[in-house]
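We modelled the chain as a single entity of 412 amino acids. Its sequence is:
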Amino acid sequence: MLIVQASARPLRKRSRPRIGLAVAGGGPIGGMYELGALRAMDEALDGLDMTNFDVYVGVSSGAFLASGLANRLDTAEMCRIFLTDVTDQERFRPEIFLRPAFGEYAKRVAAIPRTLLGWLGDLATHPLETNVTDVFGRLGALIPTGLFDNNEIEHFLRKLFEAHGRTNDFRELARKLFVIGVELDTGATVRFGAPGLDHIPISRAIQASSALPGLYPPVEIEGKFYVDGALRRTLHASVALEAGAELVLGINPLVPFDAALATRNLHKAPGSLTENGLPAVLSQTFRTMLKSRMQVGLDKYQKQFERADLMVFEPSSDDVEMFFTNPFSYTMRQRVAEHAYRATLDDLASRYDEVAPIFARHGITLRRDVVDDPGRNLMDGLGRRPRRTDVTARLRHALDDLDRAIVERKRR
């Protein structure tokens, strides 16, 4: 589904429009949905360089993709990295996301004697004041803060960003990049990449932004602990709007499921989500909260940034594929990305008359031949990229910068 918020007071067409990207979280499968959607936009929109936006905003899994684009990894290359083995980049191994957090387990086990001694001491000195709830409260401190280790995720990203002429330093990027996290002990939203936090390595910021409580331990950075940026807001498109973006493209992969609508549209769906047990109930609850918060944000954006256009791509509410796919099933990542690619093209085709003029005032052409091609698929457009060295990569980046500078100078 495509959400369009056209500007109430659009700016005149400019030679160099300011464009932003905001990518929400959604776990590994949500990230693959976002990757497919980005690839579809890349192919369907002429005049839009996905690696040359003015500002990028990423939350959790969305931070992987926003940071990659800001670091000159185009959508085709990221598809090769995350969906295939046909790449000369750092190898992506899905199992790194599911490695047990043995260090966290050991830390909690080591705390057992101290916790038990403390409880026994309280029981001996205040026997009438100690009850069962006190026991449960103390035992809670022995539960690990995360099931899986996210250090390998940071190692993978660091290697990826430090190769082929790229950078792991916010300050060295040609465009603004913000990775959103939440400081655990205050609940405050933080923008890694902003002044004062731009010295934090990009890979470390992404590790913090994607530390979903319960699954991954909070990430300690300079004495503070950070968790998933989605805890405060869903999309954080306001960050791009505040940076001056006149057109913001957003992607949100998690929406609440409408079983009744799915049934009416002849999709195979349960009569009630309770049939699928607690995971389905929790998923629906989480998605509903995210969607509600995003809608509140969109309403505010329309009033506060009335000269900006905003388009948000997300699954439809009857999308059985996205709701019932295991969010940690990496074997499904290619299928989900292809699904998102096709859904995004279909959304652009069905809303062509509405969105084409909006894109046009930002110097972008929506290609009818692409969005109306029912046989088009993501994988066929990737091909195989020639192997590169760091030297050739740096040369290509320098030539790209020179070409962009010449084009922008001619437009003035």
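As a brief sanity check on the tokenised model: The longest strand covers residues 176-183. The chain is about 45% helix and 10% strand.
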